[in-house]
Structure formats: structure tokens, C-alpha cells
Amino acid sequence: MTRGQLRVFLGAAPGVGKTYTMLEEGRRLRDEGRDVAVAVVETHGRAATAAMAEGLETVPPVQVNHRGLLLSELDLAGVLARRPEYALVDELAHTNAPGLAHAKRWQDVQALLDAGINVLSTVNIQHIESLNDVIEQITGTVQRETVPDSVLRSADQVELVDIAPQLLRGRLSQGIIYPAGRVDAALSNYFRLGNLTALRELALLWLADEVDSALNRYRAENGIRNKWEARERVVVALTGGPEGQTLLRRGARIAARSAGGHLLAVHVTTPDGLRDGHPGELAAQRALVEKLGGTFHQVVGSDIPHALVDFARGVNATQLVIGVSRRPRLQALLTGPGIGATVVRESGDIDVHIVNHSAAGRRPALPRLGGALTARRRLWGLALALAGGPLLTWVLVTMSTPESITGDVLSYQLLVIVVALAGGIWPAMFAALLSGITLDYFFIQPLYTVTVATPAHALALVLYIVNAVLVSYVVDRAARRSRTARRAAAESELLASVAGNVLRGEDALAALVGRTREAFSLESVRLTADGGVLAAAGPVPGTLRTPATSRTPDRGAAEAGASLTLPVGERAVLELYGRDLEAADRRLLAVITAQLEAALEYGDLTETAEGLGSLAAADKVRTALLAAVGHDLRRPLTAATAAVTGLRAPDVNWTEQDRAELLATAEESLATLSGLVTSLLDVSRLQAGVLGVSLAPLDTAEAVLPALEELGLGPAEVELEIPPGLPPVMADAVLLQRVLVNLLANAVRFSPADAKVVLAASAFAGRVEVRVIDCGPGISPERLEDVFLPFQRLGDTDNLTGLGLGLALAKGFMEGMMGTLETEDTPGGGLTMVLSLPAAAAAGETGAHARAAATNESGAA
């Protein structure tokens, strides 16, 4: 069976006309003679949408009773039985009512497509799963109904239904989208001009990316390798050298000349890792790419020019930016065309920009005297030349004959090769010169002179020395590459170790500083900032060791005798104590300082985010507090004011009964008002951390009985299950009584009339647990945590019950007494509140400390 095709109408916001366009397309298909049926359409009371749906065959929806509400849902079985050629399914992200075949409407659509039915559907950009967090940042609204990106990306067609934000707000103001009562709220919240503009841009970019992906798939499937200039894509080739920033800025300017230009930076790494650039430079260039709005890519290829061109073709690049070769001109002449010339030859129709820079065409330089071998190996090579030359000369002179000149030359050649293998280029050159003079003096006519009679002999000596130099150069180059490979492996191991330490939960700064000390065999390493030590590894000479996480006064690097100091960002300094580091070591230090700077910046951002989070939470509480005060305090205050005003009215003669009722009303209202204000003050003290708690051993019954008396509850309402011999608890008698009063009042209120509330106590593992058990309606699992939030009634609209602070206060009181308050389901239905407090016998010394701390807090309050 052929799978059906999915066509989705995408919109930036409600009201842009997605459903209208879908119905319009359905009418067009019907007029062409196609079999079209409406599976489900949500008109939202919009007259134009309802009129467009008239005349189209509709599969009757299925009616689902959910919590007393009658919901109309898509009848999947009915549509499958009807089997139209095209089915119109509105709101792809819709969540189905419980009890249907699928939880989401997009799953119903998948079933229709599998049955060979073509589907036309609609969705808003805010319902795409990958954009959920972005939508929340823009609108401040969390979208509960989402569609997986894979569903939309697998659609055969995605069509954008677009409208200007100003026009959409105009339609909203005219009452076309929402009823008049919702217009003002919508205009000032979700439908703000900035929100709509951002959502529109998001929809356009998402569709543009989808079109771009479809284009790349088409080019790959059809083997199209030449560029299609749909938009400018500028690829910048980075070597890891200092010219990278120049190339990136030039590439960014080229990309900015055309609308929608895209900057891509690529670094080619060879498989052996020997031609990698400077890690510090690459890290800085990667950060610059991100600042310029581009993307950084790293590919592996043994042939760098072909790897660059293949990458550029793979991303459909239109421009390729490379730098002028940094090789000396003499080397370029000897080794032939470089990377730039090969890239130009292989690029085809991709424009190549070769950018000049300050590091281009350096002057020729002699090899470093030290070479790649250690000083010890060079000394061994020199000693071998000095000792082996005379010894070999003595042996050859003793055995010399007129016919042995060829063997003599090869013997000296072997000596030079051995010296080159042992000590590198400079001892080998010394051995070659010494061997050449020795050959001329002892074996070439005239003997015992340095005169060469035959020009051919002179040429042979020169070739002999050249061969020795070339062999020693190859040995030196191999040693250099071997050292580079070992160092690259060590650097990779170091960075991987640091990353592993951080992933295992260690402090990033401490891990970086500790591994730096170990990697470079230093006496001590410190990271200091603002006069304090952020992290340290090893004792600093002349100072006391500083813990890695403490901030201590800093004497300064110069006074402490730091061998090297490196700036880390704008405020921190990395101090290294011990041996002097070589240039190659400092190369890796640049990477470590970049990682330290990133860790410091992350810490600063985290600290700022935490501060903003607490401010946002406090602001949310203040907002809720004002709303609660304005709503819940108005009723008792108004009642008390009206009663007192009535009593003082001079023109009204009240009877004694009326006067008593007014006084009772005023007294009741003022008592309610006093309780509400007390609860608000308790919440304020809890949040400020100044709630006074006085812990002392307390028998559980001593707290339970006063709570029952306060509520006027007896055996008819509450059943007690407190076993004898229960150990006392460490608690504040007043606070524990307030907690029990709140929990018992809630349990009695929600329990059925014929069911008792059970209060049970038990001891386990040094703690005493008190359970308040009711058989009421209970709370759904997803809302259990919400019961402890301030100003939550969980759907209770009875404003006579207070501000919704009771359980929030109870939990705060319990935590202040080192206890916990948790919820459990009552078997058979209902809710169980579990109080857990430390037993006085088990608390021991901990209880004494807690009482002292609580007393201090009380005094501070």
C-alpha cells in the first residue's frame, strides 16, 4: 500500500489563516473532483473559517467525557472506515483526550498516512519541539503541546501562511481572532508587536533551513557537485597560524555583502596529527568565528587542498578564503606549488580569495642549532665522531691497499650515518668534514696533504659531505616529528584528563590547576584574582598551602617568587612556581589559560543566573502576595468596615439582636484578617530565614491533643493511633501544633462525611513519623509538588479558605525543625501527609547544636 502524503500549513501565531487556507485548499481539491473529507476542524468561533468549512463533507467527531466536560475529538476509526483521498486534520500538535487510541493528534495523522490517506494539517511555529525553549524566552509561555521535528521534516510539503504582525494585531483588535473580552489581554501579552515579529522571523528561518536541507538532499541524490548560488556561503581555511583572524574578518566582510550570507571556518587536521596548528590560536579563532556569527568545523584529511575543496563543495560554498603561504620563497621554489595553487586549480567554479598577511613569505632561516634532538644525544654524536673517526682511520690505514679506496669511502660514509642517527645534523656535519679531510690526507694522492690533485676527487668529497648532510637532515626531521607526535599525544591526554575530571563532578578550576602542575612537573600552581586564591595545587615556596576552593589574601606573584605569570581573562592571573618552561610548554599553557578563562566566565554567568533566579522568585512571590492581599483580604476588611460603619450610623436605630449580629460579624472578620496577616508574616519570616525555632524534647501526644482541641475535633472525626512507648521528638511545640492544625483541618475538610481522619504515629531509624490520613479525592501525581507552593489552592475557588499558604507554612516550619513533610497516596483513595522528625533519644548532640543554632537565629530575628 502506498503511504499517503502529508502537507502542513505552518503559521507564526494563531489567527494568521492556517485553517482558512487548509479549508480553501480542500474546496479546491473537491472542485477538481478529488474525494475530500474534513476529519476535524477547530473554528474557534471565527465566522469566516466556519463559512469556508460549509459544503465540505465532515466525518462526525467522537464525543469524549473528560472530568465532566464533553470533548469533540477526531474519530480515527471513522476516518479510516470512510477512507477519503484527502483528510483535513486541524491542529497537528493537539493533545487527545484520555482513552483514545493515541495521546497526540500527530500520531493519528501518522496512522492515516500509513493507511494511504493524504492529509492536510496545520501547526504553529511555537509547537515545534526543538523551538520550545526559544518560544518560552520570547513569549514567556511554556508550550505543553508540541510536535517532534522529525514529523514536520518528514512532511512532503510545508507551506508558510504568513501575515504582517501589524495586520495580525489589527485583525485581533477587530474581534476576528478572539472574542472582545480576550482582546486587551492578548494584545498586551502574547500578541505584542515584538513577540509577533520574533515568531515570524523564527518561522521564516525554520522554513528556510528546511528548504536548504531539501536542496542539499536533492543535490546529493542527483550527484550535483557544482555550486548553486542560492545564497553566499563563505568558507575560510584556518591553519592555526596567526593569520587566521585576518582571514576570518575578511571572510565575514565578504559574507556580509549579500543578504543571508553564511560564514564557515574550517581547519584540516592530518590523520597523524603532526600538522595541527597552535591550539591557543585555534581556540581564539574559534571564539572569533562565533562572535562573527559563523560556524567552526574541523575535518581530517591527509591531502589538505582536496579536503578543503571537498568541504567547500559539500556545504555548497560560493567563496573560499585562504591565506598566502607562509613558506619561504626558496622553499616554495624547491618543493613546487603549495596548498594555495592546488586549491585554485581544484576549486572549479568556487571563487578563491588568496589574502595577504604579515606572516606570508618569511625570510629563509638556518635550522636551529639545537634541532629536535636532546643535548645529550648531540653530545653522544659528537663524542662518537671524535672517537670513531681516529679509530676508523687507524684500522683503514693499517689495512689500506691501492684498490681499497672505494671501501674506505664507504666506511667513512657509514661512520657519518651512524653519527647522524645518534646526534643529528650538527655532529653529522662535523663528522663529514672530518672524514673528508681524513680521506684526502691519508688515502688520496698526494698522500699526507690536503691537496686534491684530481678535480673528480674534489667533486666526490663535496658529494660525500652533501650526502652526509641530507641523511642527518632526514634523521633530525624524523626526530622532530616523533617529538611532535609524542607531545600532541601528551597534550591530548592532558586535556582529556581535565575534561574527564570536570565531567566526574570535580571543580573545573581545581582540575585544570592540578593537572597543569602534574603535566609540567612544577612545585606549585595558583590561580589568583582580586587579591585572593581561586585554586591552588602544591605549596607555594615561602607560603602556607592554600586550599583550592578558598579565597585567601594574596602576597603577589613577585613577592612569592613565581617563575612565570600568565593573565587569565581580565581579572585573574595564573602563577607557576618551579622550573622555567620551554616555548613548546608555553604553547600548551595558552590552551590551559583559555580553558581557565572559559571556566571563570561560566562561573560568573552561573552566579549571575542564580542571583537573577532568586530575584525572579522573590518578585514572583511579591506579585502573588499583592494579588492575594488585594483579593483575599478585601472580603474580611470590607465586612468589618461595613459592620462598624453601620453601628456608628446616627440615623439608624438598631435592635439589640441586630447590634449583636453586626458586632459578631466585625469580630469574625477581624479575626480572619488577623489570621491572614499572621500567615503572611510567617511566610515573610520563612523566606527571610529569620524564623525563630526553639527545639526541645516533646511527646507527640502533647502536640496532637492541643491541635485537636483548637479545631474542636473528637473521636467522631479523628481516630488516633499513637502507640505507647513512642520516643519524644525534637521539635518546637508551637510550630508543630500549627503544622498539625493545618493538616488536620485540610484532612477533615476533604474527607467524606462517613469517613474518619486517621492520625497515626510510629518510630523508625531514630526518627518519629506522624501520618495524617484522609480518604478524600486525593491529588493527581503531577500536582503533588504544587501543594507546597505559596498561594496554591489546586482548583479550589472557595475564597473563604484563605490565601493558600497553609501547606507552604507547614513545610517551612518542619524544615526549620530539621524535619520533613511529604505526601503519599492513601490506599483506596485519598491523601496522606507524612511528618518526620528526629527522635530526642537519637538526636543527642545534634539536637543540642540545633537548639543553640535556633536560639541564635531567634535572637537575630
UniProtKB/TrEMBL annotation:
Residues in Histidine kinase domain copies: 628-841
Keywords: ATP-binding, Kinase, Membrane, Nucleotide-binding, Phosphoprotein, Transferase, Transmembrane, Transmembrane helix, Two-component regulatory system
Known EC number: 2.7.13.3
Catalysed reaction equations from the record: ATP + protein L-histidine = ADP + protein N-phospho-L-histidine
InterPro entries per record: HATPase_C_sf (IPR036890), HATPase_dom (IPR003594), His_kinase_dom (IPR005467), HisK_dim/P_dom (IPR003661), HisK_dim/P_sf (IPR036097), Histidine_kinase_KdpD (IPR052023), KdpD_sf (IPR038318), KdpD_TM (IPR025201)
Transmembrane segments annotated in the record for this chain: 379-397, 409-434, 454-475
Gene3D superfamilies xref list: 1.10.287.130, Backbone structure of the membrane domain of e. Coli histidine kinase receptor kdpd (1.20.120.620), Histidine kinase-like ATPase, C-terminal domain (3.30.565.10), HUPs (3.40.50.620), P-loop containing nucleotide triphosphate hydrolases (3.40.50.300)
Entry membrane topology: Multi-pass membrane protein
Protein name (record): histidine kinase
Organism: Arthrobacter gengyunqii
